[in-house]
């Protein structure tokens, strides 16, 4: 998608340091971290949200999660996985992405 910031990052039009990459996803550090560790798992194929994602994508993310967490330095203390969806869900970039936040104790509810 031409005016999608994450598509531009995936295409290399906007430079980024990739924590992890394979044929289906990239993982980058969030530009405005909300925790000591704040990474974004982004599918390479543009899809707006979890409801439009191709089947198998979520399973792929789940299968790669241990390796991604290890590369990001997330330990056994835990982490938070967030998928903001739609305007009221707080989604500002309309290209599906999974936030991983870690490195501090987080409260609940988040808002
Ligand atoms: P959302 O609000 O859609 O759930 O999350 C979008 C996230 O993307 C935000 O946490 C924001 O800081 C991050 N973000 C927006 N633009 C960029 C960018 O150009 N590079 C990186 N690394 N993160 C970005
Ligand atoms: Zn996109």
Based on the model shown, name its key terms:
HIT family, subunit A, alpha+beta, 2 helices, 111 residues, binds zinc ion, binds guanosine-5'-monophosphate
Q: What's the topology here?
A:
Elements: H1 5-11, E1 18-21, E2 25-29, E3 37-43, H2 57-72, E4 80-82, E5 98-102
Antiparallel strand pairs: 1-2, 2-3, 3-5, 4-5
Zinc ion (ZN) binds next to helix 1.
Under CATH, the topology is which? HIT family, subunit A
Number of strand elements: 5
Q: Which strand order spans the largest sheet, edge to edge or round the barrel?
A: 1-2-3-5-4
Secondary structural class:
alpha+beta
Principal-axis shape: globular
Helix coverage percent: 10-25%
Could you tell me which ligands this complex binds, including any ions or cofactors? guanosine-5'-monophosphate, zinc ion
Number of domains in the coordinates?
1
Q: What this model shows, in words?
A:
With 111 residues, the protein is α+β, with helices and mostly antiparallel strands. It has a single domain (5-102), classed as HIT family, subunit A, CATH 3.30.428. The protein is 21% helix and 22% strand. It contains two helices and five strands. A five-stranded antiparallel beta sheet has the order 1-2-3-5-4, covered by helices on one side. The mean pLDDT is 97. Bound molecules: guanosine-5'-monophosphate and zinc ion. Zinc ion is lined by residues 1, 4, 6-7, 46, 95. Guanosine-5'-monophosphate (5GP) is lined by residues 5, 14, 16, 28-32, 40, 84, 90-93.
């Amino acid at each position: 998608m031409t005016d999608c910031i994450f598509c531009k990052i995936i295409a290399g039009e906007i430079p980024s340091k990739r924590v992890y990459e394979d044929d289906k996803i990239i993982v980058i550090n969030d530009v405005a971290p909300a925790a000591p560790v704040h990474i974004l798992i982004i599918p390479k194929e543009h899809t707006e949200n979890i409801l439009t994602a191709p089947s198998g994508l979520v399973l792929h993310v789940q299968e790669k999660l241990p390796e991604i967490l290890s590369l990001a330095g997330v330990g056994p203390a835990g982490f938070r996985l967030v998928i903001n969806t739609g305007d009221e869900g707080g989604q500002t970039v309309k290209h599906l992405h999974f936030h991983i936040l870690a490195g501090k104790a987080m409260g609940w509810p988040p808002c």
